[in-house]
Amino acid sequence: MQGRRKLILGRLGLWSCIFNKNRKCPYFLVLALATWGGVGFLPGAPGTWGTLAALPLWWGLTHLGPWGYGLGTAAVLLLALWAAGPAQDYLGQADHPAIVIDEVVGLLITLAGMPLTWPAAVAGFILFRTLDILKPPPIGWFTMGDSGGLEVVVDDVLAGVTARLALEVIMIFWGRG
After folding, report:
1. Confidence of residue 57 (pLDDT cuts 50, 70, 90)
2. In angstroms, rounded to a whole number, what is the distance separating the alpha carbons of residues 102 and 148?
3. What is the enclosing helix (H) or strand (E) of 40?
4. Distance CA 106, CA 99 (A)
5. Based on the domain organization, do 18 and 62 belong to the same domain?
6. Rounded to an integer, what distance in angstroms lies between the CA atom of residue 36 and that of residue 32?
7. In the chain, what is the straight-line distance between the N-terminal and C-terminal CA atoms, in Å?
């Protein structure tokens, strides 16, 4: 069993990361998380690609109930805070466009408690992306700080909270709420 585990983890590049404390471990894990498995490297609009790539996770977490959804979102938020700062160093740019784990967190916050329907997903997607791109006050105020992981993630968290509140108002006017 040890040999099989070493073979599988070795092919994934994780054996040395987990067991030998190789310096490549943080690099591999940080970039895999920060770019959401490489989605952030897609051409065009990486933030939009990252937000789209978050939809399957939203679907899966929704099936875990409110507590599962909250814990899953909190786990992704903690991973984003951990990975975003070092990823900037590895990629050589503050808030590098390839870092899209913050978009994943923002969309999960936006769609928290929303019905598992296409209209909800589309409305949440459009609202979140609009707020994330335009960064109206107070969201934009939080992008003027240092280049650490918190500064990368906080504006997307605020865009997610704002979009979620807007979705709730929309749902009240549409008859749910």
Report:
1. very high
2. 13
3. none
4. 13
5. no
6. 6
7. 53
Q: Are residues 102 and 160 in the same domain?
A: yes
pLDDT in tens, 19-48: 444 445 478 889 999 999 999 999 999 999
| Total domains present in the chain | 2
Q: 64 and 26, same structural domain?
A: no
Question: What does pTM read for this prediction?
Answer: 0.84
CA distance 25 to 121: 35
- Domain containing 85 equals 35-173
Tokens coding 133: 């791109």
Within this chain, do residues 26 and 40 fall inside the same structural domain, yes or no? Answer: no
Question: Are 27 and 63 in the same domain?
Answer: no
| Helical ranges in 92-148 per DSSP H | 101-110, 118-134
pLDDT digits (tens, 9 = 90+) for 126-139: 999 999 999 888 88
Least confident of 109-113, 114-118, 141-145: 141-145
Helix intervals (H) in the chain: 2-11, 15-19, 24-34, 46-62, 65-91, 101-110, 118-134, 149-173
pLDDT at 20: 46
